[in-house]
């Protein structure tokens, strides 16, 4: 049973930074992709950033480019999402997900964590 456990969320003022972590119970295959999604109150879940587990190549949503950075530490089986210059509109529950087949679509993700809440407010 694969488990993904997110941590690192919290309440921060605008302009702050946070680092989210996603601990993975099983080492992903090199062809797998890990991704972060988020879901704001009353909105649909959306893609934020993704990374290929083996190659380390990354992909970002337009809203994340220049402010967020996804990375992974293979030896620790952990994926990170560094959030910088946070805005109130970044407030959401952030989810970690795993696609065994190397995609980045929401519908293609095979495993999900339960999420960590990020609230950006003064």
Overall SS class: mainly beta
For the secondary structure, the number of strands is: 11
Q: Roughly how much helix do the residues carry, as a percent range?
A: under 10%
Please, what is the average pLDDT? 96
Molecular shape:
globular
Primary descriptors:
single chain; seven-stranded mixed β-sheet; 122 residues; four-stranded antiparallel β-sheet
Describe the structure in your own words.
By secondary structure, the protein is an all-beta fold. It has strands at residues 4-7, 10-12, 18-24, 33-39, 46-52, 58-60, 68-73, 78-83, 92-99, 111-112, 116-120. Strands 2, 4, 5, 6, 9, 10 and 11 form a seven-stranded mixed β-sheet that branches. A hairpin with a 6-residue loop joins strand 4 and strand 5 (46-52). It is globular, with a radius of gyration of 13 Å. The mean pLDDT is 96.
Helix-strand blueprint:
Blueprint: E1 4-7, E2 10-12, E3 18-24, E4 33-39, E5 46-52, E6 58-60, E7 68-73, E8 78-83, E9 92-99, E10 111-112, E11 116-120
Parallel strand pairs: 2-11
Antiparallel strand pairs: 1-3, 3-8, 4-5, 4-9, 5-6, 7-8, 9-10, 9-11
């Amino acid at each position: 049973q694969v488990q993904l456990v997110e941590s690192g969320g919290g309440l921060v003022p605008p302009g702050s930074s946070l680092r989210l972590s996603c601990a993975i119970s099983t080492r992903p295959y090199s062809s797998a992709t890990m991704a972060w999604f988020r879901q704001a109150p009353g909105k649909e879940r959306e893609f934020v950033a993704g990374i290929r587990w083996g190659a380390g190549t990354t992909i970002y949503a337009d809203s994340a480019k220049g402010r967020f950075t996804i990375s992974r530490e293979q030896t620790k089986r952990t994926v990170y999402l560094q959030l910088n210059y946070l805005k109130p509109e970044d407030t959401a529950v952030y989810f970690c997900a795993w696609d065994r087949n190397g995609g980045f679509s929401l519908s293609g993700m095979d495993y999900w964590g339960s999420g960590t809440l990020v609230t950006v407010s003064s």
